Amino acid sequence: MFPFPQFYAPWCAHCKRLEPVWSHVAQALHNTNIRVGRIDCTRFTGMATEFGVSSFPVILFLNGDFQYTFKGDRTKEEIVNFALRVSGPPVNQITRSESLENLKASNRLFFVYVGDHEGPLWETYSYVAERFQPHGFFYSVSPGIARKHVTVTSFPSVFVYKEKLHYFFAEPLNNELGLEYLNASMFDWVNVERFATFPKVTRGNINELLQTKKYLVLAVVEENKLQEIPTEMLVFRDMIQSVIIKNREKFHKHFQFGWVGSPELANSIAMSVVPLPYLLVVNSTTYHHHIPEDDPSQLTAEAVTIFLEQVHNQSAPRYGGNTLPVRLYRTYFKARTSLAEMWYGNPVLTAVLFGLPLGFLSLICYSICCADIMDANDEE
Q1: Which of 22, 58, 232, 327 is disulfide-compatible with 7, CB 3.0–4.6 A?
Q2: Residue 80 is part of which domain span?
Q3: Are 13 and 42 members of one domain?
Q4: Which residues are CB-contacts of 322 (< 8 A; sequence separation ≥ 6)?
Q5: What are the Thioredoxin domain coordinates in residue numbering (predicted)?
Q6: What's the CA gap between 278 and 221, in Å, rounded?
Q7: Measuring CA to CA, how many Å separate 153 from each of 94, 143, 175?
Q8: How many CB atoms lie within 10 A of CB 171?
Q9: Which of these three, 158, 193, 228, is where a domain ends?
């Protein structure tokens, strides 16, 4: 049995929002060898200390001597897939053709090694699969089974299945380059291909996307509480998606496309309140961002293509960055935005939270200053 605990605190608002999701996770994993639980860190402080938990909520998966921390989106699908991945071996073997067909129907993205379990490519694949086990599904299959589903020109080989298409690892097997070079090449390839072509970008996965070292092309729209998007924003999002679908060979190497359903995330990147819909391109290395000069709502696929070419050849204006003044301003912007949201949400509570401490501070300062003046008058 594998323990899968959530460390929480009763006063934590994020923990309370996770409660219904965690209940669904427990139901989904009920018939597996994974035991889902919750630990109240205000009561069992020793457990929190033992596992190094200092913030809430924290989701850990314990597999023998290995401890995995969940860092993705706190949705049922993401959490369940994470638990299933780390509960098994890094590479699962497919022994039947029907199993591969079922995987294609149920899993939108996974990696497959085709060939015998020997040689430098297999060693590299096993090494990379172990490193990325919390983030993706990895399988191995014999050439006979693979031929029934995909055209494989040479063995051994590795491909990723996503969006109902197969993309092969194209690094040549050159013994002169060595195993270290092959490890680095496949590591970088898996790190890039583990994401869908046009994923939803959230605060939970944006840091993982930044590790691709690509430009992030973000179509910014706004979802309501039912995750519905207004028609005009949906048209804009689909138009941005069509650019990468039609120009994958041109843009895939340097750009990772995605869409944002929460304007607050885009606002924190741009350090301003952006209009909707909006197009934002983030340099994942320097943290600069680019915006088109034209009104984003009037952009066409051709205009977006030209804009991305300008970004790639570094002729487009850039903003932001990661310098100290920019970091200070971003901190100020986030604090100002959070305070404004608190005020609009509950002005009375906000006034009490900030008014009382300021009132006491004013009284203390007034008492100190007045005491000095009164003492001076007495001496005179």
Answers
A1: 58
A2: 2-87
A3: yes
A4: 286, 287
A5: 1-88
A6: 7
A7: 20, 10, 20
A8: 17
A9: 193
| CATH number of residue 73's parent domain | 3.40.30.10
- Whether residue 329 is contained in a domain is answered as no
Last residue of a domain, one of 52, 87, 122: 87
**Shared-domain flag, residues 183 and 218:** no
The side-by-side arrangement of strands in the sheet containing 255-260 is 200-201, 255-260, 215-220, 278-283, 288-290, 319-320
Note whether residue 379 is domain-resident.
Answer: no
* Reported pTM: 0.83
Both 242 and 261 in one domain: the answer is yes
CA 336 remoteness from chain centre: 25
| pLDDT digit string (tens) for the chain, length 380 residues | 899 999 999 888 889 999 999 999 999 999 999 999 999 998 998 988 988 888 889 999 998 888 999 988 899 999 999 999 999 999 999 999 899 889 988 888 999 999 999 999 999 999 999 999 999 999 999 999 999 989 888 889 999 999 889 999 987 665 556 778 888 999 999 999 999 999 999 988 999 999 999 999 999 999 988 889 999 999 999 999 999 999 999 999 999 999 999 899 999 998 888 999 999 999 999 999 999 988 888 899 999 999 999 999 999 999 998 888 888 888 888 787 777 766 666 677 667 667 777 777 887 887 777 755 545 445 55
CA angle 374, 377, 380 (to 5 degrees): 155
Retrieve residue 290's tokens.
């680019």
Task: Specify whether the CB–CB gap between 141 and 94 falls below 8 A.
Answer: yes
